[in-house]
Specification:
Layout: H1 2-27, E1 35-40, E2 57-64, E3 78-89, E4 92-96, E5 106-113, E6 119-122, E7 126-133, E8 141-142, E9 146-149, H2 151-154, E10 157-164, E11 167-175, E12 183-195, E13 197-201, E14 207-209, E15 214-220, E16 224-226, E17 231-238, E18 247-254, E19 260-268, E20 281-288, E21 293-300
Parallel strand pairs: 1-10, 11-20
Antiparallel strand pairs: 2-3, 2-5, 3-4, 5-8, 5-9, 6-7, 7-13, 8-10, 11-17, 12-15, 12-16, 12-18, 13-14, 18-19, 20-21
Length: 304
Amino acid sequence: MRYNIAYILLVALLTLTACTNDEKEYDYSPDLNITFSPAVTVSTRAMSATYPEDVPFGIWAYSLPHNQKWSTATSEPALLLDNSYVTCSDNIWQPEPSIMWPGNDKLTFFAYAPYDADMTFTKERGVEFNDFDATSGLIPMYTNPITDCDKELTNGCVALPFIQTLTKVEFKVCSSIAHVGFRMFLKSLVIDNIAQRGSFNSLPEPKWGNLGDKTSLELCNDSIEVGMSLKTVGFRMLLSQAPNSAIKFIVDIYDDKGELYAEDFELKTDIIKDTWGVGKYYTYNIVLSNYDATFTTDIFDNIK
């Protein structure tokens, strides 16, 4: 009887040890620093998607247990990184100071660039750029929430696709009368009703609001000859908005004998009805004649 009891205890002990080992094996994961692989989502394949190595960015990170997801979490996510400063050294992007991935936790990230931008962040409204001036030359960027990142699947390196908050608007022109010997010189291209200041939030959807006073935007103030082929005469990085304005031109036209046919002649398109979207690229292909101006629009979405 004693032998049977001892045998049963031994089997139970071995079983308990095996279960404990299984749990340890499941919980085990190598120690890894949290690192990042940033890129810029672009609007055409002709544009570079490389994130500049000399532009630090900021990041927030939240941690949840391995069995929970960001969208359905039953517990409050733990704040792991709070507007941490991220730089590139030896081709590795990581926060300063560096930080280890916590166990097998799932991590969710929010990022913005550049780090010195005037911004705020909340989980509800995401990244916010406040009272931004589009004429500053700065192009603020953000990421959508990068949710439920797994250490094993990422090997500790999280991809961050940055999205430009501004809209690229480009104007190309050609002449419909160049083929009959008339020469046209574009002296001015103006579009009215454009806001250059506003505030941006990335959640629940990316948008610009609180737009400031609207002014006229001039994209060409020099004499440029317009031929039969489309020529880019200007582009701007602008806030997302609905301009509801026509494009106005001032041109000089010379006839086939080289004599001045029309001086400071004004042409105007129909009203632009597009609402310029965040991070999109709009090209207006405009045909000028001696009596009107017409356009077609090419619209490009972000391409990773």
